[in-house]
Amino acid sequence: MTTEADDYPRGQKRTWYNQAIALADASPEQLIPEIANLLPWLKDGNWPGAGIVGELLCKLGPPVVPHVKRLLREDDDSQWKYWLILTFACSWPRSLVNEISEELMCLAREVDGEGVDRVALKALLINNLIDEPTATKLIDEKKLSYPSEDIEELKELLASMGK
């Protein structure tokens, strides 16, 4: 069981980027036991080193899936969910995204004001994991909540699904 004290990033924010660089030298065998401690680094994708850590975790693939699945299902932090989806569901191969597709669909059906629903739907569309009628219905429901350019992006992804 890990505690918040075990979570990365550690110490002062000005040291976080260098911590991430040091982690880049770690082997997958060293990183896998630290997955639960590294994921909090992605609570804000703008934090120093978050991109590096996201790439490292993304490359680990399957061992990260159950952690992301649990966080998408159980955590209340919308911003964290947003960054988790952007980091993993928009980058992983379709086979891995499929393992979290149920959680993505649940999030896509909600309107949360943080954009989690939009980015979840985007991940489903990118990975062709949603049928066209369901996607069309969800996009139509989001028209009142998002700027037209966000809706147009979703419509373009929907149009490219069949190609």
Estimated radius of gyration: 16 Å
Largest sheet: none
Write down the secondary-structure element order: HHHHHHHHHHH
**Cα separation of the termini:** 46 Å
Structure summary, number of beta strands:
0
Number of DSSP helical runs: 11
What does this structure look like?
- There is one protein chain.
- By secondary structure, the protein is mainly α.
- It contains eleven helices and no strands.
- It has helices at residues 16-23, 28-31, 35-38, 50-60, 65-74, 78-89, 94-98, 101-109, 116-126, 132-142, 148-161.
- Helix 10 (132-142) runs antiparallel to helix 11.
- The model has no long low-confidence stretch (mean pLDDT 92).
What brief labels describe this structure?
163 residues; mainly alpha; elongated
